[in-house]
Amino acid sequence: MDAITQHDVSLMSALLLDGMDLDTIGDKFEIPPSDVIQHIYPPKQFIPASLFESRSRRGTVRLGEDCIEKRCSRCRQFFPIASEFWHNCRNNPDGFLGWCRACEIDRVNARRKELKK
Ligand SMILES: [Zn+2]
How far is the CA of 76 from the centre of ligand 1 (A)? Predict the structure, then answer.
């Protein structure tokens, strides 16, 4: 399969809005479903299918409605991989910390209190 073109992305987007599921769309374009969602709604950092698969097997990521979601390793809730929900982390392949924003803020506040004692 050749590289995905802008035309392909428009088609994928139309099929998704039509109610077709990501797996079926992926089959049509011969790409994994995690790539389909990322072509339609580009994330900050593209997550390669191999990384998505290995994380998905461990239950730390999943496909959401319009994005890939990852699980906070502290509160165990799933949130879209986007800066509204996660602090940046350059060392992580998805570009964000392993703890969600709320958990990270808790951690920083607790640490601050600890230091004040
Ligand atoms: Zn959390």
Answer: 6
